[in-house]
Design brief:
By secondary structure, the protein is of the alpha/beta class. It has 18 helices and 11 strands. It has helices at about 5-35, 60-70, 85-100, 125-135, 145-155, 155-165, 195-200, 205-220, 220-225, 290-295, 315-325, 340-350, 370-375, 405-410, 415-420, 425-435, 450-460, 465-475; strands spanning about 110-115, 175-180, 185-190, 230-235, 250-255, 275, 300-305, 330-335, 355-360, 380, 400. Helix 2 (about 60-70) crosses helix 4. The radius of gyration is 28 Å and the shape is globular. Belongs to the glycosyltransferase 47 family.
């Protein structure tokens, strides 16, 4: 009878409702499992690419935020270690404590870095000078490049300093920690903006400021104790600090390359065992995961180059390459500078190309290499004297082709070399570029495995040698052979045959 209640019908209803509820729970579980990061917990090295979120990579935008919050940056508390002897004793006790308490000392991370609290005329005043004059696009270098964009691509001093002095709660790097007592430090960071002062100050006031900075730095007890060997000095543009840097040649220089021709650095001033190569700040935007998936199948230009076609010193190879390649099918060679229009043209060209030409300029390096990497365009490096950033960590053979200058200018050789490249090899290198891009993007906050992080991982390998030379200099007696004769300076000549496979 309709509507009549029976125990059997009630049990069927309960069973039906149970099955529906169970199905909903099972569906929800499977959905959550499918989106869980644990489901595809592949090792990070197998990930095809990465994406930046809530990170600022623009120097201008990051600087505006930095200066707007300048009062929140914690200054270095005064460390009253004005007596070199007392500082040396304090360092000894600190190092002995670490030796017996840390089984990995002195190779362990994080590195302990003391950041000097220099007078504002060496730091904040120069940053404000850049910000207040940035809109003046008429300020050009002798070759027509906008000065402020040139400063931007050498702004490694800003990115490192901004991260070091940020509140610890805002920092993401575990490779370095800031200490506020000099005797606790492995290294000392000198936050003087040498490139901004060189390009934005008149010649004589700039030289005067360099002399003041030199005196301030070399008067520090920690500098006198080590002769500057454990001090980090950012001189990323080859002209910066040039008039006085012979007096600080023992310090660790942060450089764009190591020109061995003598045009930029004097013999004995720079070498790999002492100094560190840092990448330029890219001039173009990152081609992220979505961009790469859209552009890689459509890269129909074989080889692309946009830049100055005539350069001095090692860059003379450019004019020879123009003669060889300019009319070739599938090749785009354009004259251009790094202005806003130039940035857009270079970015579009690189994202349409499989290979990007990266020849030497006035110096062995240029920002173009890093523009190509973040654009997903395989660099073709023709710069026989080039030294590369973080090469103790990164294997550039996986993302770039190295061609000797002699081979590159042989009629037809370079085009045949590129056209004979197997599609599978090209695809593999493009995938590797997607993984490597993160290592060349300066950002705020600084990211793990970004260039700021790799700086300190590379520095960790120098600490033992720095301590060796510091202690050796402290105990060498007068009249002894006080010059080290164990420098290893192997010539750096590109051998195309060794990298074809």
């Amino acid at each position: 009878m309709a509507g009549k209640y029976t125990p059997r019908s009630n049990s069927r209803t309960i069973l039906f409702l149970f099955l529906i509820a169970f199905s909903l729970i099972l569906f929800l579980f499977l959905f959550l499992f499918s989106v869980s990061p644990l489901r595809n917990s592949a090792p990070s090295h197998s990930l095809p690419h990465f994406q930046l979120r809530n990170v600022e990579t623009s120097f201008v935008t990051s600087l505006e935020h930095f200066l707007a919050n300048a009062n929140s940056h914690s200054p270095t508390p005064p460390d009253q270690q004005n007596d070199i002897g007392k500082l040396d004793d304090a360092v000894y006790h600190s190092e002995m404590d670490r030796l017996f308490s840390d089984p990995y000392y002195p190779l362990s991370l994080p590195l302990r870095v003391y950041v000097y609290d220099m007078p504002p005329k060496f730091t904040y005043d120069l940053l404000w000078l850049f910000k207040n004059t940035y809109a003046d696009t008429s300020n050009l270098t002798s070759n027509g490049s906008p000065v402020h964009r040139l400063i931007t691509q050498h702004s490694i001093d800003y990115w490192l300093w901004a991260d070091l002095i940020a509140p610890q709660s805002d920092r993401l790097l575990s490779s370095v920690v800031r200490v506020h007592r000099q005797h606790q430090a492995d290294l000392f960071y000198v936050p003087f903006f040498t490139t901004i002062s060189f390009f934005l100050m008149d010649k004589q006031p700039c030289k005067a400021l360099y002399r003041e900075a030199l005196k301030w730095i070399t008067d520090q007890p920690a500098w006198k104790r080590s002769g500057g060997r454990d001090h980090i000095l950012p001189v990323h543009h080859p002209w910066s600090f040039k008039s006085v840097r012979r007096y600080v040649k023992n310090a660790i220089w942060l450089l764009p390359d190591m020109d061995s021709t003598g045009n930029w650095y004097k013999p004995g001033q720079v070498f790999l065992e002492k100094d560190l190569i840092l990448p330029y700040v890219p001039n173009v935007d990152l081609c992220d995961a979505r961009c790469l998936s859209e552009t890689n199948p459509k890269r129909d230009t074989l080889l692309f180059f946009r830049g100055r076609l005539k350069r001095n010193a090692g860059g003379k190879i450019r004019s020879k390459l123009v003669v060889e390649l300019r009319e070739a099918d599938g090749v785009i060679i354009e004259e251009g500078t790094a202005g806003e229009g130039g940035k857009e043209a270079a970015q579009i060209g690189m994202r349409k190309s499989r290979f990007c030409l990266s020849p030497a300029g006035d110096t062995p390096s240029s920002a173009r290499l890093f523009d190509a990497i973040v654009s997903g365009c395989i660099p073709v490096i023709i710069s026989d004297e080039l030294e590369l950033p973080f090469e103790g960590i990164l294997d550039y053979r996986k993302i770039a082709l190295f061609v000797s200058s002699d081979d590159a200018v042989k009629p037809g050789w370079l085009l045949k070399y590129l056209k004979d490249m197997r599609p599978a090899h090209i695809k593999e290198m493009q995938q590797n570029l997607a993984k490597y891009s993160r290592h060349f993007l300066y950002s705020s906050p600084a990211q793990p495995l970004g260039p700021e992080d790799l700086v300190w991982k590379m520095m960790a390998g120098k600490v033992v040698n720095i301590k060796l030379h510091t202690r050796r200099s402290q105990r060498v007696v007068q009249g002894s052979r006080n010059g080290c004769t164990c420098e290893c300076k192997v010539s750096n000549i590109t051998n195309t045959a060794s990298v074809i496979s």
